[in-house]
Amino acid sequence: MLVTELLQTTPDPAAETALTLPDYDPETQAALFRYLLRLGDSVLILGQRTSEWCGHAPVLEEEMALANFGLDLIGQARMLLTYAGALEGKGRDEDTLAFLRYEHEYRNVTMTELPNGDFARTMVRHFLFASWMVLLWARLQSSADPHLAAIAGKAVKEARYHQRHAGGWIVRLGDGTALSHDKTEAALDDLWPYTAEWFEGDEDDARLAQAGIAPHPSELAAPWRETVTPTLAEAQLRIPPESPFRSHGRWGRHSEHMGHLLPEMQYLQRAYPGGKW
């Protein structure tokens, strides 16, 4: 049974034990577990940030759009963390992985944990991130891992819509008033350096690429830049120069903002351990 089928057929996360796991050597299995955390944590944390817009979006249409984006991302996190828990084999389900880890155990890319800021900043982040995820999910549809390929097949459709929606706002804001242009360009200048982290690999990435499970992060750098450049040009935005700055959220080294985000996200599970709806 694939992860997507599992989540559709049973509401009980404990049923993850029904997964038929591929037969990997221990090193590859451990690398895939860590990779799933990197993906799952990234969409989980961005889903948490996006949900903070509920009740604060500039217009009702965006209120609904951002709420749905958050739900899409958290749905992707459920599938990834459910599979990660089953692969780890230590009895940790999606809720345990999502809500009962310490800050240094999360592996999300740093950009996802940064505060939302204004609407322009939120749209810039979502456009850059969704453009990356469209490329990644598209490649993962051909993964040698059947569960990851199934997750990618569902998630890529959502990511494409996120990319299109946020990209439309980038153009409207960047090519709008002087104020909206300045805010959008300032957001791009601030967020762009965090994208370098997405394309840096390590031994886990090399192992999974060799096994045909996931592309090496560096393979997506040029296609991603080619993807975002036309939209930024249409929005009259300049691509920021290269920066020596590097973030390291994928390796558990986070910004100070993560320490403020987690207590709010984890509150119910910490206050009422094992609580169920």
TrEMBL record:
Superkingdom assignment: Bacteria
GO cellular component terms, A-Z: cytosol
Biological process according to GO: phenylacetate catabolic process
Range of residues in the leader sequence: none
Xref: InterPro entries: Aromatic_CoA_ox/epox, Ferritin-like, Ferritin-like_SF, PaaA_PaaC, PaaC
Parts forming coiled coils: none
Matches recorded under PANTHER family: 1,2-PHENYLACETYL-COA EPOXIDASE, SUBUNIT C, PHENYLACETIC ACID DEGRADATION PROTEIN PAA
The protein's name in its UniProt record: Phenylacetic acid degradation protein
Originating species: Hydrogenophilus thermoluteolus
